Amino acid sequence: MDNQRASVDETIPDSGDADAGEMQWFVLKVQSNREKSIRESLIRRIKREGLEEQFGDVIIPTEKVAETKGGKKQVTERKLYPGYIMVNMMLNDETWYLVRDTGGVGEFTGAAGKPIPMHEDEIKRMIGDAEAVDTVPTKVKIDLAPGETVKIKDGSFESFEGIVEAIDEEHGKIVVLVEIFGRSVPTELDYWQVEKV
Prior knowledge:
This protein is of the alpha+beta class. It has two domains: 23-139, Alpha-Beta Plaits (2-Layer Sandwich), CATH 3.30.70; 142-196, Roll (SH3 type barrels), CATH 2.30.30. It is 16% helix and 39% strand. It has helices spanning 35-49, 93-100, 120-127; strands at residues 23-30, 55-59, 62-69, 72-79, 84-90, 105-108, 110-111, 114-115, 139-140, 149-152, 161-168, 173-180, 183-190, 194-196. Strands 13-12-11-10-14 form a five-stranded antiparallel β-sheet, with no helix packed on it. The protein has a four-stranded antiparallel β-sheet with strand order 2-5-1-6, covered by helices on one side. A three-stranded mixed β-sheet has the order 4-3-9, with no helix packed on it. β10 and β11 (161-168) form a beta hairpin. The chain is elongated. The chain starts with 22 loop residues before the first strand and ends with a strand.
């Protein structure tokens, strides 16, 4: 990771189509597994320098994932883009220096070192609609892959073995090909009804 600090006489690289007078979303490359502490450090520095009006949200894009451990369902958050943070800010020399001088921040994503703001469709795809965040269904973490052999432990086909054909993490379902009378029959099951062989 690049820990060099911007020199005082250095100016912000030309940001292409970025308009320094308005808030835009930028993606920062940061040290992996330190996204949360880097985000908190950046927010503290923004407040300390009194630049709150030039910054909006600082986000680590995540999704909710449900796992069953020891028979108990746990919902956790998983980073969608490990090693990246999204920042809504006005891009100018002062804000650029503040971000670049924050420990753990590598660089803005862009072309040839030029910070490039994200397009509206990219923002919606990466962070979604803020109002819809809580309505997004929780995904179920299923530790299976298509092609794996599983044993059915519950339901009409209990004790049968089959091959995983498809996985639906959003609904917690899997499709298993079960051989019945010499023919493979696709059977939809809940993820907890099977176990790896």
